[in-house]
From TrEMBL:
Residues 84-187 form the TonB-dependent receptor plug domain. It comes from Methylobacterium jeotgali. This is Ferrichrome outer membrane transporter/phage receptor. Belongs to the TonB-dependent receptor family. The lineage of its organism: Bacteria, Pseudomonadati, Pseudomonadota, Alphaproteobacteria, Hyphomicrobiales. Keywords: Cell outer membrane, Ion transport, Iron, Iron transport, Membrane, Receptor, Signal, TonB box, Transmembrane, Transmembrane beta strand, Transport. It comes from the Bacteria.
Length: 730
């Protein structure tokens, strides 16, 4: 099973991790601004894409029909602008207003109130967007951006800047039928902010505890002299911040220019770019005592703890309507991630002295992704068809250099962090890996009377080459080829206006690099899901709800070979069963509610313990709560109230207990966390302050000291955090 990366076990596991056989993981209120083009080209602005339109904001665009916290349609589930109520899978859209109300700072925070997601498994860790969907790790194969998979390998994991995000869509369950490689539990598709043809601007200043200071800006509109055919948008973030980890920073610079060219109502080309530089801690772990007890003794040391990562991307989204019933799209992106990753770990404690070691990695990941698709609308008698065909290609090249060394002992009486020189270890290990994937897919959405049938099929060809050794002396490359057919069939039935039950079946696969003890390549991890539920959209309101039950089985997983513990076999399997309930409502401007409940029963069907070597069949996966409840609400006082202009809000996140180890010998305690927000429109005080808004967000407001253990190692959660914001929009 996937595990957290760079736990204190890294030094012991490094030879395996670095070998070629175990590396692959597989403002102006912008809601009111139309994103389709200039007014001259399209007529009066509508504020959102019509639900019966196939337009997706220039190809691969985000949700439409957005009002407050609710969205009515999203292209993520079908790659067409299908209403969510007609989608045969469970989908949640986190809108821009949700992100702003909660002042989301990471992708994990964006997902924190969605059903089916587990975002606190590894405690406070600003280094990676690491989370689970329906019990499956989605860190490496589950993050998409603008409809294209965001490749991640090793420590080269691209980070999402939420301020540059328009929406986040969570599609739960297998999605290989449309997207190819992906997490069996589902994917998260991040929609980038795009240019609009209405002038706007926003400047925001934030300050918080742990000496957090941040400035954001977002501005754009039509380009003068372009006759309404060219628009731009420039978004950026500058942050300097410490964290509650001693000597650890969370600094960031992000800038994202974008341009849209719309020469006619039928053609849209959007250029999307970004550069981001982050400085983060090399580790977020604390020393664990025996008996699943996590101390306050931080592993890291400020003298050797600066994880520096640069990432950059350039791509485009192109869409052309040959006619209202024939639409061509192509989405392309080039992505690069380069990082230096130093860390210190505590290996043991003797008396009042801690013995420590170090590691240093330098990694580079370059990836290219392109998706070309054609959408057609036809009718055969009483049946209306939406046909989608496409081909996509993805390639990444990943390089790693690594080495290990020792650090001076830590004096536990003085905790002399950062006061001793720590030498960077020499590189002694090297890895080079290349993966190519080509996929061809076809989808049919047929509507007849009250029935909506969705059929999706896809075939993928994947080739991966890996070589490992020492710097300048890599060993002989090994190549592994794989292919698979995956699909989805779903049926929705419109029982009544706004009431749609559905059922679906979907399959998934993930190539696995390496070989067993006999030298035979591992089989691909394969799986399937049965899902059934009901979706509700209350007519005449912005209230949506849904209930989904699911049963996922994933087989051919890598596990320790009982007959040869130094090797692995691809025979393990797991099952994920449960149900989810959700409601999202917008009752009026600024007044919203989200409710989410998840019951998850994730178990090993065939698996061997990495601790005892014995079978743990039937055991639950550690670190993931079986039951969770999340609620968040905001309320804007009406203009007739003496509190006019004030918005208050808050949330609760409850996680039931879970097992601390895969052997299921110890349980994690239940955890309940509370969040709060308060905001005020300063224009109510004086019209001269029009456009100014002050807001305070607090997370874990009661400063709950909580931990979570997974696979026998325990992590500390984030303490109380307060961030104040002052925003000016024009």
């Amino acid at each position: 099973m996937p595990r957290s990366f760079l736990t204190p076990r890294l030094a012991a596991l490094a030879p395996l991790l670095l070998s070629g056989t175990a590396l692959s993981q597989p403002a102006v209120n912008l809601d009111t601004i139309a994103v389709e083009g200039s007014a001259a080209a399209r007529g009066p602005a509508t504020g959102a894409l019509p639900l019966d339109s196939s337009a997706t904001s220039g190809g691969g665009g985000g949700p439409s029909g957005v009002v407050g916290f609710t969205a009515k349609a999203s292209p993520t589930a079908t790659k067409t602008n299908t209403p969510l109520i007609e989608t045969p899978q469970s989908v949640t859209v986190v809108t821009r207003e949700q992100l702003e109300a909660r002042n989301v700072q990471t992708l994990n925070e964006a997902l924190a109130y969605a059903p089916g997601t587990s975002t606190d498994v590894f405690g406070f860790d600003p280094r990676f967007d690491a989370f689970y969907i329906r019990g499956f790790d989605a860190t490496y194969n589950g993050v998409f951006r603008d409809g294209l998979r965001q490749s991640a390998v090793g420590l080269a994991v691209p980070r999402i800047e939420p301020y540059g995000t328009e929406a986040v869509t969570i599609l739960r369950g297998p999605v290989s039928g449309l997207y190819g490689l992906g997490s069996p539990g589902g994917i998260v598709d991040v929609t980038t902010k795009r240019p609009v043809f209405t002038p706007f601007g926003e400047i925001q200043f934030q300050a918080g505890n742990f000496d957090r200071f941040q400035g954001n800006f977002d501005l754009g509109g039509p380009v003068e002299g372009s006759n309404g055919t060219l628009a731009y948008r420039l978004t950026g973030v500058v942050r300097q911040s410490d964290t509650f980890l001693p000597g650890a920073t969370d600094d960031r610079i992000n800038i994202a220019p974008a341009f849209t060219w719309k020469p006619s109502a039928d053609t849209t080309f959007t250029l999307l770019t970004e550069f981001q530089r982050s400085q983060l801690p090399g580790t977020a772990a604390f020393y664990n005592f025996s008996g699943f007890r996590v101390s306050r003794l931080y592993f890291g040391d400020g003298a050797f703890n600066a994880f520096t990562q640069n990432q950059y991307r350039i791509g485009y989204a192109f869409e052309h309507h040959f006619s209202p019933d024939l639409i061509f799209r192509q989405n392309f992106r080039y992505y690069g991630v380069d990082g230096d990753f130093p860390y210190v770990t505590i290996d043991s404690i003797t008396g009042l002295t801690a013995q420590r070691s170090t590691g240093f990695f330098r990694e580079s990941l370059q990836s290219v992704a392109v998706d070309t698709q054609l959408e057609a609308h036809i009718a055969t008698g009483p049946v209306a068809h939406t046909l989608l065909g496409g081909v996509d290609y993805q390639r990444y090249t990943w390089d790693r250099l690594g080495g290990f060394g020792t650090a001076p002992d830590l004096d536990l009486t003085t905790l002399n962090y950062g006061r001793q020189f720590i030498a960077r270890p020499a590189f002694s290990l090297a890895v080079h890996q290349v993966q190519d994937q080509v996929g061809v897919y076809l989808q049919e959405q047929a509507k007849w009377d009250r029935f909506i049938l969705t059929l999706t099929g896809r075939h993928d060809w994947v080739s991966q080459t890996s070589a490992s050794g020492t710097p300048g002396a890599l060993g002989t490359p090994s190549t592994q080829n794989d292919s698979a057919f995956t699909g989805r069939v779903g049926l929705n039935y419109i029982l009544a206006p706004g009431l749609v039950p559905y059922a679906s079946y979907a399959t998934t696969f993930t190539p696995q690099v390496g070989a067993d003890v006999t030298g035979r390549p591992f089989k691909s991890a394969t799986g399937d899901q049965i899902e059934a539920g009901v979706k509700v959209a209350v007519p005449g309101t912005n209230i949506t709800a849904g209930f989904a039950g699911f049963d996922i089985r994933q087989s051919s997983l890598l596990r320790q070979d009982p007959a040869s513990p130094a090797n692995q076999v691809a025979t393990g399997s797991v099952s994920s069963r449960g149900f989810e309930a959700e409601m999202i409502a917008n009752f009026g401007p600024g007044t919203n509610l989200t409710l989410a409940y998840t019951h998850l029963d994730f178990r090993f069907v065939r698996q061997t313990s990495l601790v005892t070597g014995g079978p743990i069949d039937g055991n639950a996966l550690s670190g993931l709560p079986g039951d969770s409840f999340k609620a968040f609400a905001t309320y804007l006082f009406p203009t007739s109230s003496w509190l006019s202009g004030l918005t208050v809000g808050g949330g609760i996140r409850f996680a039931a207990n879970s097992f601390a180890d895969d052997e299921n010998t110890v349980r994690n305690p239940t955890v309940t966390l509370f969040d709060a927000m308060i905001a005020y429109d300063l224009a109510v005080l004086d019209p001269r302050y029009k456009g100014f808004r002050a807001q305070i967000n607090a997370f874990n407001i009661f400063d709950r000291d909580y931990t979570n253990c997974q696979a026998g190692f325990c992590y500390r959660g984030a303490p109380a955090t307060v961030i104040g914001s002052l925003t000016y929009r024009w």
